[in-house]
Design goal:
It is built from 3 helices and 10 strands. The termini are far apart. It comes from Sulfitobacter litoralis.
Length: 165
Amino acid sequence: MKRALWALALLAGCSAPAPETAKGLRDTKALIGATSRYDAARFKGAWVVRDSFGDGVAQVALVETTKGPAFQLCAQTGCPDGGTLWLAQQQGQGRYALSLADGTTRALWVLWVDEGFRTAVVGNPAGDFGWILDRSATGGADRIAAAREILDFNGYDTGQLGMPR
């Protein structure tokens, strides 16, 4: 079974060796892959962070700016300050290189999204963050449980997740 999953990930072109990470949120020897179901038009809009590894982000949105696509990461629901705007350059199916004006960079990969684009999992190969996103602040317990399984499958230590919201 593991060999079949590994071969499928390679064929999809989504697997990558992960660099080491000091935070220890994921096993960097585990393969990680962006979802082939990703569709930027359906992903666009506001998402609520339903569970995370404690990085303080409460809301995520894929938005269009005059400089192109960007992810808006907000520390508070509703983003009264507008949130932090990370310019996004698509690197492949569901994979983005994010950057700030000060030169700070981070990768963001969409690891999974349900067929209705109501729940998603994002993270990156370094494993320095991982979020379970949902279009709603409550409900969808079955999708949230599936999202936790996706994080586990991609090598994340789900025991370090915060309390589901």
